[in-house]
Automatic annotation (TrEMBL):
InterPro entries found in the cross-reference section: FAD-bd, FAD/NAD-bd_sf, FAD_aromatic-hydroxylase
Entry-linked PANTHER family: MONOOXYGENASE, OXIDOREDUCTASE-RELATED
Molecular function GO labels: monooxygenase activity
Protein name stated in the entry: FAD-dependent monooxygenase
Taxonomic source organism: Dactylosporangium darangshiense
Keyword list, A-Z: Monooxygenase, Oxidoreductase
FAD-binding domain residues: 2-333
Entry keyword annotation includes Transport: no
Amino acid sequence: MHVLISGAGVAGQALAYWLNRGGAAVTVVERAPALREGGHAVDFRGAAHLDVLRRMGALEEIERRRTGMGAMYYVNAAGRRVSRMPADLFAGDVEILRSDLAKVFYELTAPAGVEYRFGDSVRALREEPGGVAVAFEHAPQARYDLVIGADGLHSAVRALAFGPEEDYVHHLGLHCAIFPVENFLGLDHTAEAYRTTSRVVIVTSANHNAEARAQLFFPSPKVYDRRDLDAQRRAVAEAFAGVGWHTPRLLDALRATPELYLDSVAQVRMPRWSAGRVALLGDAAYSPCLLSGMGSGLAVVGAYVLAGELLRAGADHAAGFSAYERIMRPYAEGAQRGAEGNAAMMVPQGRLLTAFLNQYIKLVPYLPGKQMIANAARRTAEAVELPAYAWAGS
Ligand SMILES: Cc1cc2nc3c(=O)[nH]c(=O)nc-3n(C[C@H](O)[C@H](O)[C@H](O)COP(=O)(O)OP(=O)(O)OC[C@H]3O[C@@H](n4cnc5c(N)ncnc54)[C@H](O)[C@@H]3O)c2cc1C
């Protein structure tokens, strides 16, 4: 079986690992010119996520490279810390920079025979009897037994095989902008957050304090053109004009940065994750949104299950895709339900609600039931039973 995976993100690399280990030939095509540097951190929580990473032989290295982030502090406009959110309330069991994770997975897959093709992308798909003919932006056309779209929220494979993004991507009403800044607050493995009416500004130390990252959340019904960096910068600057604390300094950095991430906080909801010989995995199929803290966990568990069920089904790929969806759908939908609440609470509209939330945040560390918040996230993360596949170890 020769499988083409579009996307060398968390999902695509994890799937490549498992398919390769199960004996399939795997090609990964990635639009970026090389493995990504920098970027945000992702976390894994609960037994299911950690078990898959352990079975991959990746957990030890991930723990070695963990970011080691601690508590987050809410500050007032004067910069005084008014509330401390302990890491165990919101963080997972292990957090790692996405770029570090990509390196760990690359080391497990490329030397083992997975073919990576950077700087290219799928341009067209045509299903034929017994395979899929794939046209690329650069490489010559080739034929594969199966094609898996693991190319994220704005998946190209999804658009080609299932239809336009607007049919599946549900904007949750806010945007998130992230860009690097100097660690001018001297943050030591921590973050500071400032909330004002309908705006949230977070500065978090990154790369073991060598730099920091600004994360700006704002409500927005509009979806911005992801290819127009200047328009994106202007939109963020307009949304945060007049916001206090260190926001003006962050906006200065924004004006100069070539490295801006701006995207809608969005979920992917699809009635089916496969069509013929093409299927979707990770954010492309079931993004729970970046506020869920579950996207990377869902990606690695989904990769394990998809590979396992495909290899179990042998020539009957339709049975493999169905079994993958039967196991993963309730799990992914549970994560999505939890995240909708996070999105609604992140940037409450209006002064009154913001003032209420600011008071609530001050109280959270002292609430007797505070551990329930962390426990609920853990229950969501553990709400799946990993099937056993003989060739995958245990
Ligand atoms: C700012 C931010 C913070 C986050 N924080 C967390 C967190 O704390 N915890 C957590 O669990 N998750 C978090 N997430 C979500 C997490 O990153 C994703 O859910 C997870 O990485 C899903 O992985 P994926 O491989 O499905 O998609 P992605 O990580 O998006 O990977 C998709 C890959 O496909 C490539 N690609 C895209 N289009 C094409 C194309 N046309 N052809 C070829 N390749 C293509 C991309 O370059 C990328 O490498 C966060 C996400 C963001 C954006």
